[in-house]
Amino acid sequence: MTSSALQFEALEFASVVPDVRLDIYRGEEWITSFANDVHRGLLADPPMLPPKYFYDARGSELFDAICELPEYYPTRTEEAILAAHGAEIVNAAAARSLVELGSGSSLKTEHLLRPLILDNELEDSLYVPIDFSESAVREAAVRLIGEYPGLRVHGVIGDFEKHLGGLPPAEARLIAFLGGTIGNFAPDEMHFFLRRLALLAEPDDSLLIGIDLVKDTEELESAYNDSAGVTAAFNKNVLASINSNLAGDFDLDAWEHVAFFDRENSWIEMRLRSSIDQIVRISAIDTVVSFAAGDEIRTEISRKFTREAFTAALESSGLELSGWFTDENERFALALADSQLASGR
Fold first, then answer.
1. Per-residue three-class SS string for 125-147
2. In this predicted model, what pLDDT tens digit does every residue of 73-115 receive, in sequence order?
3. From CA 144, how far away is CA 130, in angstroms rounded?
4. Is the Cβ–Cβ distance between 321 and 336 less than 8 Å?
5. Which helix (H) or strand (E) covers residue 282, if one does?
6. What span, in angstroms and rounded, lies between the C-alpha atoms of 3 and 29?
7. Residue 295: C-alpha distances to residues 277, 287, 314 (Å)
8. Looking at beta carbons, which pairs linking 194-198 to residues 24 or more positions away fall under 8 Å?
């Protein structure tokens, strides 16, 4: 579907759900970016694929299932922190609108929306979810405007690394980046991204960032190697997405899920390991790649932080920690930060 057709579909959706606007960037531009990243990544040494391509419709469903697994502590721990401290966070930020990067199903977000709208008695408030998954944004938008009369939703369906410039203007934004997704960036990439957020922020904006904390290796590794195999299916889904979007011929049964904690780098690393000698063809990008049995493709890193390390990362990027919220076992944290680079500061 072309970009113009997608935008027309978004306008048609908005006419049915009048409090919702959708800006859709996942058209020809997204396929081009996907193709370039796959071509470059698979030919790199070692091969790698960006984790953002996990999250097509099927990938989003699988990730929602991962969040319900007993081994996967981050989602329920972060949600408990939000439930306990959401109103405190909103009040500390003096927020009047909410922007969420990588919003997914927007379920945890209600712990911020509820105090934002009800406690401040706002009759006209704005929520801006940004996510790769069009279905997730649409479903969340319909649900939320039904639950919160007066709420407006301006969804952005695309890549939050590329489309931050398209954010709508709003008063006193709380820009939330939840789920520990900041840990998917390599150190230099994280610095660049945080600095972009610092420059993007207006003087009355605040940032809220979910971070997974360093803990016991066994607990970390079990969260990414669940006994039900859901994380393995999620990991392999990136290959299925290549098959469906770029005419690839990956045999998913010929790949094994691998996840381990690299203590030197303080990150979980997820890989896909070839179980046989094989040749993979990706017709849309005219690419042929050979893999020997045991060869691996890195599909994700998930960095784990201490408070001191993350505070230093914020400061080096032009941000200042203004609040720190964690659970009683200090498994996960929410960092509230202000920009020192915002105009007018």
1. EEEEEEECCHHHHHHHHHHHHHH
2. 999 999 999 999 999 999 999 999 999 999 988 999 999 999 9
3. 15
4. yes
5. strand 278-282
6. 8
7. 9, 18, 36
8. 194/313, 194/314, 194/317, 194/318, 194/319, 195/317, 195/318, 195/341, 196/164, 197/164, 197/317, 197/319, 197/339, 198/317, 198/318, 198/319, 198/339, 198/340, 198/341, 198/342
Q: Is the pTM of this model over 0.70?
A: yes
Instruction: Check the CA dihedral 57-116-85-159 and report its sign.
Output: positive
How do residues 136-194 score in pLDDT, each as one tens digit?
Answer: 899 999 999 989 888 999 999 888 888 788 788 888 999 999 999 999 999 999 999 99
CA-wise closest residue to 109 among 14, 202, 177: 177
Residue with tokens 């932080």: 305
Q: Where are the beta strands (DSSP E) in 90-204?
A: 97-101, 125-131, 151-157, 173-177
| Contact of 268 with 301, CB cutoff 8 Å | yes
List the Cα angle 330/335/341 in 5-degree steps: 155
* Three-state secondary-structure class, residue 224: coil
Question: Residue 202 has which token pair?
Answer: 């207006």
In the sheet where 319-326 sits, what is the strand order?
20-24, 151-157, 125-131, 97-101, 173-177, 206-212, 332-339, 319-326
The C-alpha atoms of residue 94 and residue 122 are separated, in whole angstroms, by 13
Handedness of CA 192, 211, 255, 258 (dihedral sign): positive
Contacts with 21 (C-beta within 8 Å, 6 or more apart), sequence order: 10, 14, 152, 153, 154, 155
Q: How far apart are CA 35 and CA 12, in angstroms?
A: 29
Judge contact between 113 and 98, C-beta under 8 A.
Answer: yes
**What are the structural domains, with CATH classification, of the chain?**
3-26+65-216+305-339 (3.40.50.150)
Assess contact for 205 and 175: CB atoms under 8 A: yes
